Amino acid sequence: MTTAADRDPFVHPALFYRGAEQYLAGTVPFLRDGLAAGEAVAVAVPGPRLALVEAGLGADAAGVEFLDMTRAGRNPGRIIPGVLRAFADAHPGGRVRIIGEPIWAGRSAAEYPACVQHEALINAAFQGRAVTILCPYDADALTPAVLADARATHPVVIDSGVERPSDAYAPEQVVARYNEPLSVPPGAAALPFDAEALPWARAFAVREARRLGLAEARMQDLTLAVAELTTNSVVHGGGSGTLRIWAEGEQIVCEVHDPGRLTDPLAGRRPPARDQLGGRGLLLVHHITDLVRLHTAPDGTTVRFHLDR
Q1: Which of 113, 150, 167, 275 qualifies as a cystine partner to 178, CB 3.0-4.6 A?
Q2: Is 98 exposed, middle or buried (0-12, 13-18, 19+ CB in 10 A)?
Q3: pTM of the shown model
Q4: How many whole angstroms from its chain centre is CA 272?
């Protein structure tokens, strides 16, 4: 399979596949082409398909880095900095080729908006870089709406072995459309805070998380995430905010709302510049939690994170 690498330094096709045969036909030649060209090559897909690709490559698998996306990309906001950028930045100087499958049928309704925004933001995160990222989509298991979103987030779509430009490509519109208001359940514990109340906010979160059944092994992650977000609200988000926490299924959900405006859609998904004020805390929150959702509106910004209990 060929790509448009000669026309654009960054190439981001979606691969629609149906069954294992089409999956292998779309991925294995892509990887072997990269190896033959001397490119650094990685595969980050869900575990069962990881084994399928590795077996299909045979001896060539020795030259490929493999990551289970259900673990490395458990939090979709972690994929750009922790998987794609981490691999590309480790191989400067030449073209890098990656297969990344962030969306599969087992993704939850809460995770999906963050997944779609991730796919849209890849284009901005790698603009101008010599990187090819192929994103497989299971056309049998995923809904037509999901495939429509894939056409909107990828400039090129490969379907039944045919590569075509997507006439629905509109990544900025996708990011805006999935900037959804985040509803809070009735009875969620809430605490307003300012600079003086930061220690109380952390203590409040720990107390409520214990009451709601968060495992002690995850308590440090919760404490760090709350500390980063509440401090960011005080320093960069208008000086105050509101912390909320509740249980949702098998997860503890915590959010911080403040009157600040987060204008960079890639905040927390890429390493901040050395002279940049802020940005590192949100990157850490993405790294240590299981899901992060953001909503920006005229009245401020909400950052919500989920932790498995």
Answers
A1: 113
A2: buried
A3: 0.91
A4: 16
